[in-house]
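User: Hi! I'm working on a homework problem where we have to compare a predicted structure to a textbook description. Could you give me the structure for the chain below?
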Amino acid sequence: MPTRREFLATAAAPLAATAQSTTPRRIAAVVTEYRLNSHADVIVGKYLEGFRQNGQPPGPRSKIVSLYTAQVPKNDMSRDKAKKHNVPIYPTIWETLTLGGDRLAVDGVLLIGEHGNYTYNEKGQHLYPRYELFLEVTDVFRGTGKSVPVFNDKHLSYSWHKARRMVEISRELRFPMMAGSSIPVAYRPEGVDLEWGAKARHAVSIFYADPDAYGFHLLEGLQCMVERRQGGETGVEAVQYIEKQAMWDWVSQAPWAEKLLNAALAKGVRRKPGDIRELGKEAYAFRVWYRDGLEAAAFMMNGVAQDAATAVEVAGQAEPVATLMWLGEGPPFEHFACLVQAIEKMFETGKPTYPVERTLLTSGILEAILTSKFENHKRIETPHLNVRYTAPRKGFFCTEKLSGA
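Assistant: Happy to help. Predicted structure tokens:
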């Protein structure tokens, strides 16, 4: 096994080759399970069968060359797909990344730890083993003395400490890393983004469904807009979970929240007609206080709308900056094609399309929010979420739909 000094001397070499080469990248997929409409299906499936998953172009240039599945449910698709596309399935992550040899033999890793038979804790967090799978991936990097870009789907981890450690390891071993939701990269019909460097005062995002799996999407939809504000991202000082009538009472007392909530809802395409307070009796929200004074609220509008949208109040502007982040309602789930395009850019250039720190921060916010929910909705101070980063000036979301999708 190489020493740490030998490893660091060689770790960057594959990345330079990636940036200069026109050869399709060889990608290893490490997933928890692969079944119809799972995240493995809608991400890996686009590498195997194109963005529409119909065997026709367009699609990624990179190729899946190996697969590892932690679980194989009765409705598993991995075996049939692997046979159809001549992709070997290996019993260990080491063999998946080395193609059965003793040297790193791939140019990138997709880590998709979403779906599967895993337990929940008392806070309602689904305990997917993303961190543990990541450690196995990076053990291969350490053991072979080489590293390649890694994309981690959704949260880094349910645990802040594990999430932070994942980012630390990526820095220690010097490989590009991305993570997160498909929401930030989804098609925006009006092409709207917060102007880079804008002085944001308040923000609201909307989504729907459960606090853990979908609450992460909600927070990423918020963060991908507000991270562009003046001064860049400096972190979060506190959070609070509120729900039902208490949430609506707070909205009535916070004019900015009501205005921005209405602005976000106005961008939706799957909103039910009627009074939102009547329809949204089971709705809930995540309040977020940022360290630089920005205050935000992320609403799960269950019963009201099934859209992803964000609205931001900007100093000196009468109307909010608001946008819909459009989601395909069924296969081929086009917003995942947008995500794959962002991942592809990293695999081909060796540079993250956007900072992994965003997902580090949203992972930590969500853990604290679920702690607030568990602890009777109290405000949770978060001095540990002092995550600083600068968002890219250029947008990274899809600017058009795939024709025919």
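For your comparison, note the following. Confidence is low (pLDDT under 50) at residues 1-20. The longest strand covers residues 200-207. Good luck with the assignment!
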